[in-house]
């Protein structure tokens, strides 16, 4: 008899918080609104911990059905929850990091308008994200999937009076729709061929199929799922929304656009590993997209000057690593990196938020500098996160990234190409992160005196002058996340893989046969690890040289590179390209064909002309209404004469 | 015996006279009398048919028409008096308030 864990409570707790704050929050004072949000989010976290404590006693996978949702013929989708090591890891990451970011937001958003609205959205996001993570069928997962998109849209456009924020929200929403379209078609294919969307049933049906060489059903499903994942997780070619999403408040960037929501695509691919393992072509696409995205975003990140944009491109790049891991069959390594990334990237964003907060809303790194001594706690926590993402041992990012690179090299699906690009990207990562670090914390302060600054787009101006450390409520989450960024990787990739093994057991023979011999593996592992450490140090060294030792050198290099530098600086003109290829034709087509052509010239014209015609006829007919009795009588007589004439004519025929 | 068609032709002539009078006359009382003429043209055809087919209902119907005509005359004359009192004329061309 398996115990009833009441899994349904976990998503519903934040929903209750969102409902209370959203419906009644207008009357709440700030402490009450934040207490409500924190209490419900904290309760969800506590419950996740409670479940984790009992986890070893459960029979896996643990499933709980709450109610029937849709039943149509043999197809059935329930409100049912699914707990296995994979969802447990996601559950802990989402509730844990989410809770810390809730705490941080209390301080960060204190002076903003719409305080209760912010927390209602944040709790709403938690509800959908937890639904996504705990769902036991693809349909419920899709509800969460769309819901986090909605929450993301609401929070990107939180400062909706600012045009750029509203536009960024729309962009995120629309680009995600493209991905969701692929996801939906994948679901339709599953219903068509497997008759179900339940993970258990779908995976059972898939297990009976062999590995697909070439292309076929599983490859199509896999590729369509990847389209969905590319939209949600900002991979090539659908990554364009994530940098713009930085218009949202910084805690949102940390929670949704770094730590949790954008990793939903990785989670979904990992969850569907049974399908992907039987579709080598789809795997190859996943790995290639991930690798290219990692490199592509990292190169853009090198040239960005907005502190949050650097972190946004870095997020895209790290997500690329996770897809690379999934694509070479190392799903548990992808999830491992997802977890460590949630720690250090969440921390990086929160620390960046603390920096922005300290200097009164400035986001341009060219106007920072020398902040090391002024905001020491932020500096040290940021340092921990930077070392973690750059892959310095023994910080968390080192273990997960190294494991991914190792798998990319040795796995049967892997190739030295992935590995080489991965190492180069690791070097770039280290370089642009330390560039950010040097520009922000070292050298001279390059900003103006900022007593009159206000955060861009925020309705209320920041009332306090002088560079100042953030309040305690913001620093505590920073410190906790810093500890996690340092220690999070010490679990070790092997132990983590063993823990996740039940979730990734597939029964596919392809995985085991091609594994290399053990001794050879150990030798190459040492070599590969030392190469990636060298890459990390090289990045640090180069950043130190260019941005600390000789700060005028970058400009000379930029001039020497000329056109290429301009291309990178303008993000390879991808936004402009999309505008020309898709946005403009769409707008022109809608305007000239659908609006002018069909709506105005056909639909409106039909209505207008029939009204005009009726008017003309009536205008003529109204002259019969003369008011002269004898003319009326004449009409009556004429009418009667016509009738009689007709009857006579009919009668004599 | 006088053939039926004679009665009908006479009825038709009476009716046509009534219509013509109704259309060309301007005085309300003349118009009113034209209406009576039309009614009598119709009455004549009724009784002619009734005699021809030996059916009583046509005769009875004529009585009804007469009663209604009497009632109509009473009401109509009352209206005419009212119109004359307010407008001091019986010319229908000047009674055209309903005109657009």
Q: What are the low-pLDDT stretches of chain B, counting only 5+ consecutive residues below 50?
A: none
Task: Please give the alpha-carbon distance between the first and last residues of chain B.
Answer: 54 Å
Mean pLDDT of chain A: 86
Helix-strand makeup class of chain A: mainly alpha
Overall CATH architecture of chain B: Orthogonal Bundle
- Summarize the main sheet of chain A: 2 strands, antiparallel
CATH class wording of chain B: Mainly Alpha
- CATH topology name of chain B: Helix Hairpins
Rg of chain B from C-alpha positions?
17 Å
Could you list the spans of chain A in which at least 5 consecutive residues all have pLDDT below 50?
450-463, 508-517
Task: Give the fraction of residues assigned to helices of chain B.
Answer: over 70%
N to C succession of SSEs of chain A: HHEEHHHHHHHHHHHHHHHHHHHHHHHH
State the oligomer. heterodimer
Q: What is the average per-residue confidence, as pLDDT of chain B, rounded to a whole number?
A: 89
**Could you say how many structural domains of chain B there are in total?**
1
Structure description:
The complex is a heterodimer of chains A (about 650) and B (about 100). Chain A is mainly alpha-helical and about 650 residues long. Chain A contains 26 helices and 2 strands. In chain A, helix 11 (about 265-270) runs antiparallel to helix 15 and helix 15 packs antiparallel against helix 16. The radius of gyration of chain A is 31 Å and the shape is globular. Residues about 450-465 and about 510-515 of chain A have low confidence and may be disordered. Chain B has a single domain (about 5-95), classed as Orthogonal Bundle (Helix Hairpins), CATH 1.10.287.3510. Chain B contains 3 helices and no strands. The longest helix of chain B has about 30 residues, at about 55-85. The mean pLDDT of chain B is about 90. Chains A and B meet through helix 26 of A and helix 1 of B.
Fold topology:
The complex is a heterodimer of chains A (653) and B (100).
Chain A: H1 9-24, H2 30-54, E1 62-72, E2 75-83, H3 85-108, H4 115-134, H5 138-156, H6 163-194, H7 199-207, H8 217-232, H9 241-244, H10 250-259, H11 264-271, H12 273-277, H13 280-303, H14 307-327, H15 331-358, H16 376-390, H17 396-410, H18 416-441, H19 472-487, H20 493-504, H21 510-513, H22 518-549, H23 553-561, H24 563-569, H25 574-621, H26 629-652
Antiparallel strand pairs in A: 1-2
Chain B: H1 4-24, H2 28-53, H3 57-87
Helix pairs in contact in B: 1-2, 2-3
